[in-house]
Amino acid sequence: MIDAVGNPQSLFILGGTSDIALATAEQYAAQRPLRIILAARPEEAELQEAAAERLRKTGSTVTTLSFEATDPDTHGDVVDKAFADGDIDVTLVAFGVQGDNEKGWTDPKAARLVAEVNYVAPISLGVHLANKLRKQGHGHIVMMASPAGERARRSNFVYGSSKAGADVFYTGLTYALADAGVKVTVVRPNFVKTKLTEGMKPAPMAQTPQQVGAAIIDAVRKGKESIWVPVQMRWVMTVLRHLPRAIFRRLPF
């Protein structure tokens, strides 16, 4: 159970090499050691083990699972294994692919990969997690969304469309799971300096994984259903969302 000051005893990370998720785990573990389950793609096994060793240095107990986002038939088994040793207090859904936007709207395979990893897999896992947590009677899901899902932009509408779908699903889960004592937080961070964005030009108000991790911990503690990181992004996107199309499409992004 999450204690009175908001610290969990157990943490399940889907996307076990995510810079944001690992920064969140380290900040939680700085308060007290916890049981951590990392799930990542088979090809990331070395990176995941390095992340596990990093977290074990905090005194936490860390186990790893192999997880393939593009194989929905295995998702139930991954979730079952994560819950096999006891209740899970906080789950971070923190995996995704950026993809190449130009290839994404001209190459069906590239478009399908983005959709499968960023949209289909989070929904499939969300259903499995929701079923587990309803039976458990408590817990918190944190889903990493993106401002890119707020309005289609020429530069990243393939990625944005996948994030928009997942955002709506997990926002709906906040309502569906409320009576079961389960909370859901949708996180919409601005540009974050991570492996996913390596080589890209940082946007204004760019964040670090540590900043986003601190915001996630605060949101879980306060039971928030959605957050923007930084908070100013909420108002930026409110303005952009309501700009006339003729003006919006001329903006340099």
Automatic annotation (TrEMBL):
Pfam families referenced in this protein's UniProt entry, alphabetically: adh_short (PF00106)
Keyword list, A-Z: NADP, Oxidoreductase
Keyword NADP on entry: yes
Database matches in InterPro entries: NAD(P)-bd_dom_sf, SDR_fam
Gene3D superfamilies found in the cross-reference section: NAD(P)-binding Rossmann-like Domain (3.40.50.720)
SUPFAM superfamilies xrefs: NAD(P)-binding Rossmann-fold domains
Family statement drawn from the similarity comment of this UniProt entry: Belongs to the short-chain dehydrogenases/reductases (SDR) family.
Name the UniProt record assigns to this protein: Decaprenylphospho-beta-D-erythro-pentofuranosid-2 -ulose 2-reductase
